[in-house]
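Q: What would this chain look like folded?
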Amino acid sequence: MAIFDRYHRQRLVDGIGDDGQLAIANATVAIVGVGALGCASASMLARAGVGRIILIDRDIVEKTNLQRQILFTEEDAANQEPKAIAAAARLAKINSTIQITAHVEDLTSRNIKHLLEGVDVIVDGLDNFTTRYLLNDFAVQQNKPFMFAGVLASQGNVMTVLPESTPCLRCLFPEPPPASSQDTCDTAGVLAPAIGIASSCQCMDVVKHITGNKHKISRTLLTFDLWNSISSRLETGNPVDNCICCQQRSFAFLETQTVEPVALCGRLAVSLPAIEPFDLQSTSAKLQEHGTFTCTDTMIKGEFNEERATDGSAIRLLCFHNGRAIIHGTDDIRRAKAIFERYVGN
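A: My prediction, written as structure tokens:
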């Protein structure tokens, strides 16, 4: 008989029950990317009672996020809080009985095994293809289910990868598209209801998998366009015989060690990879000569006196504990690298 607790209505669903709820409580789910998709998924999975949720995101909250990233507030944006930390704080108020781990990190081939150690399911909340392909490599290599999704404007794609059972991402899309060939939320925008559809599908498949209802997971690629009221499901069939990843067991993205700077989706900013070794305090002292900067235990943030954006505003810098940085005020990767090297170092 169902117990009248916070999960009572969930326990009543055929296929979940008390055993399913216990399985949910014992599960570990990693959400990689805590933007619009990641926030929605994290909220649903925390409310569902997933016992441990791992949040991984390199970014900070900005005002333009608030239109669709449901875990953040105006205060988070004003304080430029790291997304993973702000989301973890909000989730802890939603469900104090679960464990939430936040990593303010850029997921790379160097740290992926450490950050995703012990996870049962991986949820895609990303906005760049290269890291998605890295996740696909890891999921296939480690035999972990990978909930892929992407949304742009009002359109979305959703597919669950079950290694050894369904096609992987590279079966359908062997190589990531060139960065310059793709629209982003910066150029095409994004609507919150489309996020809700994609993340709901992801989370439903997470719950199906955790509770032993894998046979209920659709072996299709869902595509939809909410603005034009169109949706379809493409049968994905079996893994492709000559897939370089899941059949040939070649994991090129896991084996690639170089982390490249990237222009961030939706705003005038560039993310620069971590550097080692790195010391926040000495870097902060150096920067004081060139602008107004504050230093905490986890980051340096501030603006330069002489570096200007095209609109005349000051170029801003956020630098995290591991030397990873975000340069605001330009989407020119070469200029962002030059600014960082000039004031912080190589």
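Residues 192-210 form the longest helix (19 residues).
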